[in-house]
Design a protein that fits this description.
There is one protein chain. The protein has 399 residues and is mainly α. The chain has 17 helices and no strands. It has helices spanning 10-25, 31-37, 42-45, 47-70, 72-92, 96-106, 110-123, 126-140, 143-158, 160-181, 192-203, 206-235, 241-265, 271-294, 300-327, 333-358, 365-394. Helix 1 (10-25) runs antiparallel to helix 10 (160-181), helix 4 (47-70) packs parallel to helix 6 (96-106) and helix 9 crosses helix 10. The longest helix has 30 residues, at 206-235.
Length: 399
């Protein structure tokens, strides 16, 4: 198989991102069977999700700067090799501790998601990068929905170990694909000290943190929804699992629509403007939801209809905020993508925990909308600050 020497196709980057996403949630339907088969407590087995998220945040923090230093290609190839072997280890695990150890190693696959963003920025300017990231996000949004569905089918038909064997097959296939299609897109640093100084300079840039926080708060609103929607749906609306799936999926449909719309708008308007529009759309939709509740229109259609605007707003915002974060110091696009991703994961974990605590008593539909609105509004403030800093750097007077 011939080694790649040119930048990868967009389809390769989409597959790198999608594989990272489904690795998190495809095993969700199998957790109970894993606990029974390995004679382990369910809470311990659930670390395959919570612990995995924590490790993936650490991986993102590490692989970004590492890829800036030695190149994207070797990091992606090494990560996929580790993921493939770890998946085989999970499939063969005879104890819960063995399973969890290999499961944590599987988190290496998140490198594909992080570095696909950096590779886009390596090969395109900020505007074109935002457009391409919107296309990746639009396609990738299907992965969280399809992953658990496929996992449940495989678990019911063949058992939970087959899910990990599928991970291994996907990792091996993607490893072959990236070897033949993913050429290096960044020149590795000749001076490690210079890269360290650049990274320190990036971390001192308020503009970078505005973009990164905009991404984190935007995705945080989605995490709040995932943590609270099942509780509200069951306790307030009496929904079953099938109905809940439809209404929860609606926010993903909104994200796909927003990503598509954003990829069209970014060619006509600056990425930062599209980012700000996305935050405004999310906030206005949630305010409309609170108004509907105050007026007594508490129905599933009104309630979940307003949350669709969070997905729509995130689709408009996150490709542009990610592109902006990586454009502050383009030479450190990997570091910027890794830090932003880790911040989003850690923020999501904190916000889901807080949402669970807030709704642990009598669930309040207005409280869930209010929490989502707070996160969306903080994202709006971060987006506005980014635009203000951009204008100041360009010498444009604030209006």
């Amino acid at each position: 198989m011939r080694k790649a020497t040119t930048p990868p196709a967009l389809a390769t980057l989409i597959l790198m991102t999608a594989t990272s996403t489904v690795t998190l949630n495809m095993i969700v339907p199998s957790l109970a069977n894993i606990a029974a088969d390995l004679q382990a407590d369910y809470a311990l087995v659930s670390l395959a999700l919570g612990g995995y998220l924590a490790v993936s945040a650490a991986v993102q923090l590490g692989v970004g700067p590492l890829s800036d230093r030695i190149g994207r290609r070797p990091v992606v190839l090494a990560a996929l090799a580790i993921f493939t072997l770890a998946s085989l280890g999970c499939a063969a695990a005879q104890t819960v501790w063995m399973l969890l150890a290999f499961r944590m190693l599987q988190a290496a696959v998140v490198s594909g998601s992080v570095l696909s963003l950096a590779i886009v920025r390596d090969t395109a300017g900020e505007v074109e990068a935002a457009r391409l990231l919107g296309r990746i996000a639009m396609t990738m949004a299907l992965a969280p929905m399809l992953g658990p569905m496929l996992g449940s089918v495989l678990d019911a038909a063949f058992g939970w170990r087959v899910v990990f064997l599928l991970y291994a097959a996907a990792g091996a296939g993607l490893l072959c694909l990236t070897w033949s299609d993913l050429g290096e897109t960044v020149r590795p640093a000749a001076d490690e000290g210079a890269d360290a100084r650049r990274l320190a300079a990036l971390l001192r840039q308020p503009l970078f943190w505005c973009y990164a926080l905009c991404t984190a708060f935007s995705t945080g609103a989605f995490f709040i929804f995932l943590a609270g929607a099942p509780r509200i749906a069951a306790a307030v609306f009496g929904m079953g699992t099938a109905e809940l799936g439809v209404f929860v999926g609606s926010i993903t449909a909104g994200f796909m629509a927003g990503s598509w719309l954003g990829s069209r708008l970014v060619g006509r308007h600056p990425p930062a403007t599209v980012m700000l529009i996305g935050r405004a759309v999310a906030c206005l939709g949630l305010l409309a939801g609170l108004a509907a509740i105050a007026l007594g229109h508490l129905t599933p259609v009104y309630y979940f209809g307003c949350t669709i605007f969070v997905g729509l707003g995130n689709g408009l915002t996150t490709p542009n905020s990610n592109a902006g974060a990586m454009s502050v110091r383009p030479r450190l696009a990997g570091s910027a993508a890794g830090i932003t991703g880790a911040l989003s994961v850690l923020g999501g974990a904190l916000l889901t925990t807080l949402t669970g605590l807030a709704l642990s008593g009598t669930p309040s539909p207005a409280l869930l909308i209010g929490l989502m609105l707070l996160a969306s509004f903080l994202g709006l403030l971060a987006a506005a600050a980014a635009i203000r800093l951009n204008r100041a750097a360009a010498g444009v007077p604030a209006t």
